[in-house]
Automatic annotation (TrEMBL):
Gene source species: Penicillium chermesinum
Keyword NADP among record annotations: yes
Protein name: NmrA-like domain-containing protein
NmrA-like domain ranges (all copies): 17-157
Keywords: NADP, Oxidoreductase
UniProt-listed Gene3D superfamilies: NAD(P)-binding Rossmann-like Domain, UDP-galactose 4-epimerase, domain 1
GO molecular function: oxidoreductase activity
Amino acid sequence: MLKYANTQAVGFKNRVERVAIVGAGGTLGSHIATELLKTGKHTVTALSRKDSSNKLPSGVLVAPVDYNDESTIVAALEGQQFLIITMAPTAPRDSQSKLFQAASKAGVPYVMPNWYGGDIEDVKQGEDTLLGPGGKANRDEIETLGMQWTAMCCGFWYDYSLAGGEQRFGFDFDKRSLTIYDDGNTKISTSTLSQVGRAVAKVLSLKELPEDENDRSLTVSAFLQRGIYIKSFVICQNDIFESVKRVTGTTDADWAVSHESTQERYEDGQTLVKSGNMAGFSKQLYARGFFPDDPSDFSAKAQNELLGLPVESLDDSTKVGIALVKELQLRVERMAS
Ligand SMILES: NC(=O)c1ccc[n+]([C@@H]2O[C@H](COP(=O)([O-])OP(=O)(O)OC[C@H]3O[C@@H](n4cnc5c(N)ncnc54)[C@H](OP(=O)(O)O)[C@@H]3O)[C@@H](O)[C@H]2O)c1
């Protein structure tokens, strides 16, 4: 593995200039691609299915790929220094493995695989939410293929989770209803989509390697084989509700509020998933995140200051979330048709 810049071949440029991204037109990938382009330090190439109708942010180069023809993926990845994968969780299970194998053949050294969720070091939470073992297997495969990985630990996306229906943060904006889990006071760490985009761009804009053993500056290599930890808000449902009421100009009287225990929601969701009904997946995932005795709060590990990430306004982010409601509903309809 590369260690110091001063031991690299003549002509080595100590920066990540060429970034490939899967999902550049997607929910998160569009934010990452946009923030990368804003730095002016990278070319951003989207690996996009050849029949995709997803719109890509302007300035992104397109490399059409066919997941049934590895040569198209290898060709798209040749010369790329960093592969970011933000792929729909509904994509066929072996899609990421196909990308890893092609990246290895193309000589890509670094991969950020699908994750963008909880703390990868919290094995229990990972097992309970059913996401941990798959994430670990992805990271292991990247290592086995001789590449290095980093994983984004950002918690639930604040704006997306607010907009994404009752199963997530409990809000249904069409019905103006809210399900409060337990007493609504359990705090979890969350990040906005734009904060995740900024964090990825900050890391990839660092020097790739320390110049030599005395160089203590922050580098991309400092984030390899481990998570990048960030946050926007450490927040409970009651705080979110207060923000929603401020932003929408509503009061308690406008909302139908009910209560449910996270334990019951978790068990219901798990039962559905185990019977093959993936409608239960988000329900069990978010319920587990809000368990009062073991919530998904890893804000103590957040590297916001190290990366120079901004402090965001809660109410502005709530507005962004509410504006996403319709878009996410249309997306679900598109995917179903
Ligand atoms: N922390 C959270 O709250 C949270 C919430 C949701 C998701 N996530 C995670 O974030 C990651 C990205 O999710 P996302 O919601 O941003 O993804 P997304 O927008 O649903 O999809 C991203 C891209 O995946 C590609 N894609 C879609 N269907 C595919 C298929 N059948 N085969 C191959 N590629 C396909 C599309 O790219 P092209 O059309 O260009 O090929 C699409 O733009 C996942 O790891 C997910 O688990 C986290």
